Amino acid sequence: MDEQREFIIGRNSVREAIRSGEQIDKIFFQQGLTDGSIRELLMLARGSKLVIVEVPRAKLDELCAGMGAEGHMGNHQGVVAQVPAFAYSEMEDIFALAEERGEPPFIVILDSIQDPHNLGAVIRSAEALGAHGVVIGKRRAASLTTAAFKVSCGAAQYIPVVKVTNINHTIEDLKKKNVWMAAADMDGQPLAKTDLKGPYALVIGGESEGVARLTKELCDVVVKIEMPGKTTSLNAACAASILMYEKRRQDMAGK
To answer: pTM score, two decimals?
Structure first.
């Protein structure tokens, strides 16, 4: 993992990154800049449906600290692109790992998890509990930035993390490959009473809205974690860990 790839700075560099189709999480540009070069670049970014954030110059200076020659601040020219500090895997890598282990595919799909710390924690649990891969979306979702990678405690190096354009299309494709889908939702059936053995993907919703309605409708079953305490909800990463543990427990019990 190359942490220097977390940012691309300078107008020409950012423009070429957009045109080449490189994965870009968001574009930061300096408040008050309205010259033709900036307007052209922002139009290009909007045309590619990228997230654009206007920030003070001081913020850009902070992002580019140490990125110039001899450790000086990098010359950002009023624009910085944040890119993933991690090389994502392909869906085929998940199935290859499952085949290598002689196990049915066990996949974790994250629907709009926006906190990089939650993302890192889920990846750590997924690797520890024997999942073969984690799937995240490109839009309205955290990417595997340096912060998320650190929270994963390096687990992201040992499990495929796949970034897809459309979660629902991915679910449909996986179902065609005979992978069953279980969405986590408060209105579901009890987790412990649900048969999760075999090829399965667990779909975990975002911190505020949970699994989207259309996504939930695509799933084969909806499950809930029964909680006898006064707390009625769990952090997304905590809920994901419980779901993954139950899936793993059932698979091991069947051997």
So the answer is: 0.71
